[in-house]
Design brief:
By secondary structure, the protein is α/β, with parallel strands linked by helices. It has one domain: Glutaredoxin (3-Layer(aba) Sandwich), CATH 3.40.30. Helix content is 29%, strand content 19%. The protein is built from 5 helices and 7 strands. The strands form 2 sheets. The chain has a 5-stranded mixed beta sheet, with helices on one face. The chain has a two-stranded antiparallel ribbon with strand order 1-2. A hairpin with a 5-residue loop joins strand 1 and strand 2. Residues 15-29 and 35-42 have low confidence and may be disordered.
Length: 191
Amino acid sequence: MTRARPALPRLALALLVLAACTHAAQPTTPPPDDVPTLPADILAPIRNTPGERLDLVVPLSGGDALPLAQLRGRVVVLELTSAAEPGWPETFAFYNRLVREVGPDRLAVIVVAVDPERAALSPEPDLRTHGFELGWDPQGALAARLQAAALPTVIVLDRDGRIAFVQSGPAEGRARSLTDSVRAAVAGNQH
């Protein structure tokens, strides 16, 4: 019997998750002066640029799909992450508070787990408030399409579906900048 080879997206996703998990353990030292720096577009958190409209369909954990175009008129926070990331339950509490503060008529949050097994998401954190969806992308197709550089990656879209803010890497300390970005996107796009 011949063993099936793993699909390339799963291998790429595994490498992405491994890199994100080991990133926090690596000491940060500045590069030597004689090492050239990489161009900014290679270091970008995603391949898309601020101001660009993001037209994607997000796979949800229940099996449905949610086109981002359906959320136009609201600011959208899209986070690509893994249940293995530190702070997974705290992420849900933070987004529940943010949706309650801003209001589900003005803000939608989608946390997309890229874990290959659905069981990794269980037990799910407490109930999500209205306006907060859980996505599941086991093959990492969404992360690959965006060319996400690390997990977690957070994207804030304005009411027109344009990228207003992108942040990638470890979650510590990002709550304030993310909250400020959401507030600015809501205030800046009053119709």
